[in-house]
């Protein structure tokens, strides 16, 4: 058991109810919660003085904090973690939210990136936070078709069409003296080999197949295939996989200079987040939603934000991407968690269907 789980089990019913009400009120309003506020709708008739004593005990335990002298209390990061792990009542996805997500994914987007861009916009709109969507790495996506296009002497284009509809165009210098027939021959040769393979699979087998079928492919076509392979090996990750939408939502209702500095730092962190492996590292402990509160979030240097993130999987149950929501630590977790979970599952199913299509 974690430290927060042990603390929760040690609290008596009154302390647990006071703590739960403080956190729920804070998450709803963002304001410190005073003892008189709690006495109005408490389940038992107890005085404000008694509630103040309970709140002082919870503060001593590190679960609540007083932002100002004589003000009410707010939950600490440890308190929020304990609430999320042990007391959070998870709602179901509201019909309106579900319909909005379904409509986005139901659009016939030409490629995966534009589809996931729309998913991110819908997520940020629903949650009023910033959305994070990690697109699949197309190195591991099945290929549907490969085409070579001559642009000018010494310049050509290789067009890669993946099974999920994603298209990549890469410029390269073809071998000297290349003829249109050699380009067609090279494309036919690669398409015959591709047959649903990924780029990674194709790299490993093409040169071996060229040696085995040397008489079926002429020297120029063979040189073109080699040029294409070199291009794929050196290109790295050519498209941006991390899609962030709704940054402006984090500024709504923020007037304090300290909060503005914190959010500006978050924006800087988002711009610098190029090592997208970090995002998948956050979800490596299996499928399902994970919640990172404040400084638990290793992706950003900021301690004043929360990240709710869930991986999505392909048809082989392999994690290929992630969706999430970034917001203040007083995020409406009960609403955001089911929305992120639903979206991740839907994206995974849709991409799996596209790959099979």
From TrEMBL:
Boundaries of every Heat-inducible transcription repressor HrcA C-terminal domain copy: 114-337
Keyword line: Repressor, Stress response, Transcription, Transcription regulation
Signal peptide: none
PANTHER family documented for this protein: HEAT-INDUCIBLE TRANSCRIPTION REPRESSOR HRCA
Known function: Negative regulator of class I heat shock genes (grpE-dnaK-dnaJ and groELS operons). Prevents heat-shock induction of these operons.
Similarity section: Belongs to the HrcA family.
Protein name: Heat-inducible transcription repressor HrcA
Species the sequence originates in: Gemmobacter denitrificans
Gene: hrcA
């Amino acid at each position: 058991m974690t430290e927060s789980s042990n603390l929760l089990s040690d609290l008596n019913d009154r302390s647990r109810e006071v703590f739960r009400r403080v956190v729920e009120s804070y998450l709803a309003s963002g304001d410190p919660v005073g003892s008189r506020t709690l006495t109005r709708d408490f389940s038992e008739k107890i005085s404000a003085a008694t509630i103040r004593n309970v709140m002082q005990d919870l503060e001593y335990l590190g679960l609540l904090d007083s932002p100002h002298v004589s003000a009410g209390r707010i939950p600490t990061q440890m308190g929020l973690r304990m609430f999320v792990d042990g007391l959070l009542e998870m709602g179901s996805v509201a019909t309106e939210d579900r319909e909005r997500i379904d409509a986005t994914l139901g659009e016939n987007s030409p490629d995966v990136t534009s589809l996931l861009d729309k998913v991110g916009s819908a997520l940020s709109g629903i949650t009023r936070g910033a959305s994070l969507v990690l697109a699949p790495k197309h190195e591991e996506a099945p290929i549907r078709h490969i085409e070579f296009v001559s642009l000018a002497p010494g310049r050509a284009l290789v067009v890669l069409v993946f099974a999920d509809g994603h298209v990549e165009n890469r410029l390269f210098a073809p071998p000297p003296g290349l003829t249109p027939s050699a380009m067609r021959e090279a494309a036919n040769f690669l398409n015959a080999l591709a047959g649903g393979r990924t780029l990674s699979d194709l790299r490993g087998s093409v040169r071996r197949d060229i040696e085995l079928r040397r008489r079926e492919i002429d020297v120029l076509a063979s040189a073109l295939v080699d040029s294409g392979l070199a291009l794929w090996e050196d290109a790295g990750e050519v498209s941006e996989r991390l899609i962030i939408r709704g940054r402006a939502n984090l500024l709504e209702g923020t007037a304090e200079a300290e909060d503005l500095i914190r959010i500006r730092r978050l924006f800087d962190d988002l711009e610098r987040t190029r090592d997208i492996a970090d995002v998948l590292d956050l979800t490596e402990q299996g499928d399902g939603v994970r919640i990172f509160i404040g400084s638990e979030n290793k992706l950003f240097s900021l301690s004043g934000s929360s990240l709710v993130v869930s991986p999505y999987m392909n048809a082989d149950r392999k994690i290929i991407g992630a969706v999430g929501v970034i917001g203040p630590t007083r995020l409406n977790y009960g609403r955001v968690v089911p929305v992120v979970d639903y979206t991740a599952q839907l994206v995974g199913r849709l991409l799996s269907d596209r790959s099979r299509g």
